[in-house]
């Protein structure tokens, strides 16, 4: 008797899930050119930061070269970090706003 009740319950659950799946829309991706450009700029900023860090780590033969490379890294890594966060957040908001509009 309990097995029969459980089978009926499972059938109801399956029917409910199928109805919900029909009603649910697929998530839309933001494929606009501007959003892609924002994402590419964000990735480029991260790559530039990685290259600068690599130059400091592997391209410093002595103390003076190290200090010069380090100062360059501090300046441009800060700028790249700002660019990354601004562009990545902007792209995120654009995608979120498009999803909410539908």
Describe this structure in words.
The protein is an all-alpha fold. The protein has helices at residues 2-23, 33-58, 63-101. Helix 2 runs antiparallel to helix 3 (63-101). The mean pLDDT is 92.
How big a fraction of the residues is strand? under 5%
End-to-end separation: 46 Å
Task: Count every helix, treating DSSP H or I runs of 4 or more residues as helices.
Answer: 3
Secondary-structure element string? HHH
How many strands in all?
A: 0
Q: Overall mean pLDDT score? A: 92
Give a nutshell description of this structure.
This protein has 102 residues and is mainly alpha-helical.
Please give a handful of descriptors for the protein shown.
102 residues; mainly alpha; 3 helices; 85% helix; elongated
Walk me through the topology.
Elements: H1 2-23, H2 33-58, H3 63-101
Helix pairs in contact: 2-3
